[in-house]
Amino acid sequence: MQTITSVSEMQALSERLRMQGQRIGLVPTMGALHEGHLSLVKIASDIADVIVVSIFVNPTQFGPSEDFTKYPRPLEADLAACEAAGVDYVFAPEPGEIYPKGYSTFVVEEYIAKPLEGASRPSHFRGVTTVVAKLFNIVRPHFSVFGQKDAQQVAVIHKMVADLNFAVEIIIAPTLREADGLAMSSRNRYLTNTQRVEALVISRALRKATEMVAGGERRVDRLIAEATHLIGQHRRVRVIYVSIVDRLTMEAVKGEITPGKSLMAIAAWVDEVRLIDNEIL
Ligand code: PAF
User: Would residue 258 count as lying in a domain?
Assistant: First the structure.
């Protein structure tokens, strides 16, 4: 495995690989890798000749009061995990390599990015689409794998790829959960043992909604009320949103859900830790 930190070196490498007819798969990450990330690598390894994992804590997707500086950066452990997972190249640039002095161009998706995460983190998706567009231009992958855990991110990137004609196939990987249901996330590292137990109510609320739908419930108000009620019983968990949206457009579903097409998305604070999760209903 080779680690590359320079944009020009990465571009030259992908040019060479493409000339040789190699199929390049990109797994973009911000590091602090866990089993969820490695499941994306596994999916990529089934269809790629060459796997590139990018590790870059992207400053432009963090709001001014968010956790950019304290975001975990265990680079050595991440590189070891990538090597063990059979990754060929890690692209791990410094911030100045991606955003040199005077940088002033951004990519903005203006519709799907608006609700949910977009409403509570207004500049978040502008940062995500910008860095992912740059990664696509630098790594030039044939396909890229993203986790369904960040359902809105996946929808926004799909739209960006379609609207800007990127020749990159987007592959969506299912959310990986801990044995107790907690969705895997780099931010779970922030949770103390007690906070972690409290956080379980998020996946429990989603599971309850899927059970209600399996039992025939279709009404959005009832599904949201039940999930909100469950979370409300936990003093240290504060709901940011519990929404049912179209899984592709992120538009709020009114009245009744369409099974398979609607998605319940939850964001909540567990004390000072912000967590998101979702399930297709
Ligand atoms: O999902 C993430 O980890 C990030 O949003 C991504 C896609 C790597 C862009 O920084």
Answer: yes
